[in-house]
Design brief:
The protein has five helices and no strands. It is an all-alpha fold. It starts with 27 loop residues before the first helix and ends with a helix. Helix 1 (28-48) packs across helix 3 (58-67) and helix 1 packs across helix 5 (83-98).
């Protein structure tokens, strides 16, 4: 009797997940945008009594700095965002982006 395994170990040389952005992936202008977004997020967190990661992660802010959405609809499509975060923070984020 042959026993077949339903489990196939993953090939560790291949990654199916997209690599996360890092600061090294951002150009000088994008890093400035990221810094401004991070400052907004940290101020918002402080004023609301929340931790900053509850608002959004640095990777989300880096993605926004890279893409630079101009509308709420574009912001909603950023990885890690969506309808709820966009409604809560979208106007503030777009205001920060408009400075650049």
């Amino acid at each position: 009797m042959v026993c077949h395994s339903f489990y196939e170990p993953k090939d560790k040389t291949q990654t199916s997940k997209k690599e996360k952005l890092s600061l090294d992936d951002l150009n000088t202008n994008e890093q400035e945008v990221f810094t401004a977004l991070k400052q907004w997020r940290n101020d918002f967190a402080l004023n609301s009594g929340w931790s900053a990661f509850r608002i959004c992660h640095n990777t989300h802010l880096m993605e926004i700095a890279k893409i630079k959405p101009e509308t709420m609809e574009e912001l909603e499509k950023v990885k890690g965002f969506g309808e709820v975060r966009t409604k809560k923070y979208g106007e503030d984020i777009l205001a920060v982006l408009n400075v650049f």
